[in-house]
## 1
Amino acid sequence: MFSWQMSLRIFLGIITGLATALILHACQAEPNALNNGSNVPSSAEANKVAVVSKSQDQPQDKPKKTELPPATKAIVDSVPNGLYDPPRGDIRLAVISDLNSSYGSTDYEPEVDKGLSLLPFWQPDMVVCSGDMVAGQYPSLTEDQIKAMWAAFDDRIAAPLRKAKLPYGFTVGNHDASSARGISGKFLFARDRDVASKYWNAPAHDPGVEFVDRFEFPFYYTFKYKDVFFLTWDGSSDLIPKDKLEWVEKSLQSPAAKAAKIKILLGHLPLYAVTVGRDEPGEVMANTEQLRAMLERNNVHTYISGHDHGYYPAHKGKLQLLHTGLLGSGPRPYIGSNMPPRKTMTIMDINFSSPELTTYTTYDMKTMQKINYNELPKSISAHNGIVLRRDVKMEDLSASERSNCESRLGANLCSA
C-alpha cells in the first residue's frame, strides 16, 4: 500500500509539472505577441488597411511581418507563383495616382481598393499620391456634389490610412482643384479649390506628415520623413506663378532640405508627356527646361508626377522622372507604341547606400505581375522633348531611333 507520504509526493509532482508547462507556454507565446503587433485584423475588418504603425523616431529596421488580413491574403494567394516581394530599402513609399472615375463620381475603381488592400503586404512607411483623388473640374458640379466626392475619398481612402497611422503625402491634380485661370486672371474652378482647401485644412483630415512649411497647404507645402525632404507644388495646371517659384527655390535651400539625403518633388502635370492625348502644350508644365534646370540646380533627385495615366520610369539630364501610372479609370497608351495601356502601382524603395538611391517595383494591377523595364519603350519623344527610360543612356539608342526624334523635334529637343 502507498503511504500518505508517497501520495503527497505524487500530488506535489503533478502540481510542479503543471506549473512548469504553464511557464514554458507563456515564454513561447510572448515573442509571437510582439511580432503580431497590437492586434490581428478580424474577418470583419478584412477590407480595411491594417499596417503596423511606425514612428519616425524608430530605427530604420524592417517592419515585422504580421498575419495578413483576409482580403490581402486572398489577393496574394491568387497570383500565380506568388506576389513578388521586393527587397526593402531604408525607406519605402507606396506611390499612387489618378484615383478618380468619371466626373462627379463618388465611387472608385476596383484597382483602388486592391491597391489599398495590398498595403499590409508591402508595409510602406508612407503613401504618396501625385493627384486626381476626386473627379471634379466640371463646371456644372455643385458645391454639395464636390463635397460628396471628398467625403467618399475620405471614407474609402484617407480614413483607412489615418487608422493605419500611415502618413499620406500628396499633390492636388486638375480634377481635385485646377489652378487654370481665365482671361480675367481668376481661377476657373475656384469652387473646387475652396472645397479641397477646406477639406484638407480640417483637423480631422490631417494627412499625418511631418510638415516643414505649410505655406499654402494643400497647394504648396513641404514635409519630411526621416532623411527624405518632400516639396509639393501646385501642378494642377501648367503654369506656376513667379512668386511661388521663388518659394520653391527658397524651400529647396532651407536647412531641412540641405540636411536631407534625398529631395523629392510631388506635382500632378509632368515635365514631359509620355502618353497619347497628353502630348500638347497645357498637358505638361510650361517652361519645362527652365523648371528642370532649377530642380537640378537645387539637387532634386526625383519628380513624381501623374496626369498621363501611364507608368514610365524616365530620366532627363540629372533629374529622375517617375511618371506614375493610374489606379482609376482611363489608362492611356504610350506615344509611338502599340503596347496596350494598363493600370499600375509603384513601390519605391529608397536605399541611401545605393548610387541610384531609389528602386521602383511596379505592378500591373490586373495580373499583379511585376513590370520589368525592358517591357517599356527605351525612349519617348513628345512635343517638348525626349525622355529616356531609367536604365537607358543616349548612346544606347540606335542611329535610326535618334534620327526619328530629330526629324520630328529637332536636335535641341532630342538630347537627354
## 2
Amino acid sequence: MRPPVLPVVLLAAAAVLGACTSAPPERTTLTVLASSELADLEPVLADLRRDTGVDLRLDHRGTVRASEELAVGGTGHDLAWLSTNRYLKLKSDDLPLSTTTMLSPLVVGVKAGKAEALRGASWADVASRAAAGELRFGMADPRVSGSGLAALIGVATAAAGTGAALRPEDVTCDKLQGFLTGRAFGAPGAAEVVDEYVKRQDEVDAVVAYEAAVLSLNASGQLREPLEVVYPRDGIVLSDYPLMLLNPDKRAAYDRAAEWLRSPSAQRAIMERTHRRPVDPQVERTERLREPIGTALYFPGRQEVVDALLAAYDRAGEPGRVVFVLDHSTSMAGDRIAGLREAFATLSRAGGFDRFRVGETVVLVRFAGTVLEERAVEIRGPADLEALAGALASAELSDDGTAIWSALDHAYRVVGDGTVVLMTDGENNAGISADGFLATWPDPPARTYAIRFGEADPVELDRVARATGGRVVDATSGSLLEAVKEIRGCR
C-alpha cells in the first residue's frame, strides 16, 4: 500500500509560504552625530531602514564642532558619521571603530566664465587670483566645518611644498592671507555654504566645497551659471566619511548598517543620489566622477598646526602693512638691483601664495647714505599692484654711503603694527650704529626680517633681527625672490 502524499504536499506548501512571509529584519533605531552635509542621504537611509531594519536618526553638526564634542566626552549618540575622523584623532588617540563609507575631495567650484583661467590650476594660482581681487568665493567656517578646515589645510600644505603633513615650523609664517583675501562670505557648515552660494551667486565667482556639493548644485536647477570643478593640481584634501561606533551595545546594528552601506548596490545609490565617490573600486563611477583627483594631502598630526591655521583665518580681512627697507647704494648696481626689481614685479603680478594682496599697504623706504625716498602703496586693485610692480624700475642708486640702521630707524617710525623687511648688500658706514638703533628701540614695535646678500655683515644683521623678534634670510647664493617669499607672511 502506497504511503499518503498529502502530508508531504502540505509540508512543501508550508515551506514555500513560510519563505514568502519571512519576518522582517529586527527594527533598531540608532542616533547618529553627523556632518551637516549628510542631510542629502535621507533617501538612501530609507532604503537602509527597509533592507536591514536599522533606522539611522541623524543629528547634524559641523565636523570640527562635532569632533570637539566627541573629544570631551560622550554626546549620548550611538554612532558618529563625520566627513573625517582625522580632526578627532588630534584630540584623542583612542578612536572608535570606524568604517569608511564614501569619498569626496575638496574642490573649487568656479563659474564657467571664470574657469578658463583656472583649468589645471594649483592652490597657488587660486591664492594669487584671490589676492589680486580677481576671484571672490564662499567657504565654510573652519572653526565649525570640516570643509572649511580642509580648505585651510589644502592651501597651507601646498604652500609649505614639503609633500608631507604640516609641521609647526611650516606655519610660523602666514601663507593664507592671499587666498583668504578672496573670501566674500562664510557659513557655519558645508551644507549652509551651498545654500548661501545660491543666494549670493550673482555677487561671487566661486565656492570652496566638496566635489559632491558642487555637482549637486549643478544638478539642482538653482544656478544661473553652472560651476566648473577645479581640482588643484598641488593636492587635494579627501574626506572619507567614516561611520563610527560610539555605543558598544549597538555593535550588531552598526555592523548591519556598515555592511549594507559598503554593498555595491548601496554604493551606487550613494553615488547617483549624492555625487559622492564609491569606496569600492569595482563600482563603476558615473561620468562626472571619473575625473582623477590627483595627490591626496596629509592631515596635520598636531593640534598647534590647526590652531595656527585658525588664527590666520581669524586675521583675514585685517589691513596688512609691511615696510621694505631697500638698499640703493651703488654697490647694488648690476644683478643685485635687477634681482630686487624682479622680485617686486613678480610679487605684484603673480607670486602665488606670497604675492602682494588687496587690502595690504606696502611701504618702500629706499636708502643709501640717508633715506632717499619713502613711498606707500595701498593696494585696492590691479592698478595699485601694477604701480607697485614698477615702483623700483627707474629708482636711481646713490654713492653717499650705506646708512642701514638710520633707514631702519626711519622704518620703525612709520611701520605701525606691521612688519619690517630689511634688504642690504653692504656694511653700515653712515648714520647711527646698530648699538645706537637698539638703544633707541629697546622694545621694538615690530619684527625685522633681514635679507642678506653681497657683503652685508651677517653677525650684525642677525643681532639686530633677533633683538626685534625676527631673523635673517641669507640670499648670497640663492634667488632674492625666493628669499623674499620665505619671509612673506611672517609676523
